[in-house]
Amino acid sequence: MVLDFRHRDVPHPELPEGFRWIPWAHSQLEDHARIKHQAFEREFDSRLFPSLGTYDGCRQLLTEICRHRGFLPAATWMVQFAAHDFGDPVMCGVVQGIVNDTQQGAIQNIGILPEFRGLGLGRALLLKSLSGFRRAGTSRVYLEVTAGNGAAVGLYESVGFQVVGTRYRELPVEMWGELKSADNEVV
Q1: Which of 24, 138, 141, 166 is the most exposed place for a label (fewest CB within 10 A)?
Q2: Across the strands, what pairs with 19?
Q3: What distance in Å separates the CA atoms of residue 28 and residue 93, rounded to the nearest whole number?
């Protein structure tokens, strides 16, 4: 999916009360990896992309992202929940961004912990990342999403992303039942 900034304004990102933005710092790589892992470990995507299913895989993925020559800290954020007085703040969402060789932005895995879903944090992270890409001068941002993830596809379309192509991934036969039980189509 692609969003062309030349043809669309992006709303200002807003977090619900009790949440705050945490900008990228290399010292937080472990936190990014932990949140990404916890957000994806029980999701279908962790079967398609095994690195999302383990902490070590997520840590390796994050290491590769932040070493990429186009890594964009301005498009890389965490969200922290700190609204309660009796416990420590909780990191609950992540997004990372890179700029490719053609100066297009690429969003890498928006992840929200399951217990924090439905609060608008994914949308807020998406918009915050997009604002970082815009400040960096990119005119287009793309991302990949599993077609069966209707909530994510709907979110991206609501912001202005458009489907520009489809990639097909061969799945092991044992995953077909999982697709059907998750109310996805087998293609």
Answers
A1: 166
A2: 81
A3: 13
Please give the Cα distance from 28 to 21 (Å, whole number).
Answer: 13
| Tens-digit pLDDT profile for residues 14-38 | 999 999 999 999 999 999 999 988 8
Rg (CA), the chain: 16
* Contacting residues for 101 by C-beta, under 8 A, at least 6 apart: 70
- Per residue in 39-58, is it b (16+ CB within 10 Å) or e — as a string? bbbebbbbeebebbbeeebb
Digit-coded pLDDT (tens) for 118-141 = 999 999 999 999 999 999 999 999
Cβ atoms 75, 107 nearer than 8 A: yes
| Strand 19-23 to 90-99 pairing | unpaired
Integer Cα distance of 46 and 58 in angstroms: 10
| Alpha carbons 1 and 139: distance in angstroms, whole number | 14
pTM of the model: 0.84
Contacts of residue 111, Cβ cutoff 8 Å, sequence gap at least 6: 35, 36, 38, 39, 40, 93, 94, 95
Judge contact between 52 and 33, C-beta under 8 A: no
Count of beta carbons in the 10 Å neighbourhood of residue 124: 24
Domains and their CATH numbers in the chain: 2-181 (3.40.630.30)
